[in-house]
Amino acid sequence: MTPVGPASPNYKHGNACKRWPAHMRDAVGEILKDADLIAMRKEIALYDVRIGDLLQKVSPDQEVARWAEIKKTFADFETAQKTKRIDAMEMHLSKLKELIHSGMTDSEIWKDIGDQIEGRRRAVDTEVKRLSTFHEAAVSQQFLVLVDRLVNILDANIADRKTYSTIINAVQRELFSSASGEVAGAIPATIP
Tens-of-pLDDT digits for all 192 residues of the chain? Predict the structure, then answer.
């Protein structure tokens, strides 16, 4: 059976970017230079601006005024109905439709605000996970550097190989007895 894909000796990388138009390759190259490419801070700020913009479109004062206008228009409609003035009834009914429609628009805006808040929450969760992962990786790297320096200091200052071996083995047991073992390779298993 002939190997295919990454198993094939002729496999390059599977990326067709060499066939992209030059302006796309250049644009992608510029974007990849961004150190914060996967950061969500800009998106979170955009959500905040959008939510603020939507909130400016609705206000409690407008709602109160709208309900007062609906109440007045409906009372005018009932008066026209009692006096059987069809033209006045149609006018007040048309105005009620407009007021109700504007209230529905506000309802849609509030739904959009809720959607934006949910999108912002997801972006914040993603950014928190990214920062947490970055922090964990940085701490792990610092720990490995510290262990490597400790081993080098011990190696340079302990001439007796038996004492050196005893200390290294004790440190290894102490540091990695409850660890998963993924960092254990940082301390040499055999003494030089």
Answer: 676 655 566 655 545 566 778 888 788 777 777 777 778 888 999 999 999 998 888 877 777 888 899 999 999 999 999 999 999 999 999 999 998 888 778 888 889 999 999 999 999 999 899 888 888 888 888 888 888 888 888 888 989 989 888 888 888 888 777 545 444 444 444 444
Identify the CA nearest to 68 among candidates 94, 110, 107, 103: 103
| Residue 178 dihedral angles phi and psi, to the nearest 5° | -105, 0
Give the distance between the most distant pair of CA atoms in the chain: 114
What distance lies between CA 131 and its chain's CA centroid? 10
Tokens in use for 127?
């950014």
In the chain, where the domains are located: 39-141
pTM of the complete model: 0.49
Could you tell me if residue 156 is left (phi over 0), alpha (psi between -120 and 50 degrees) or otherwise beta? alpha
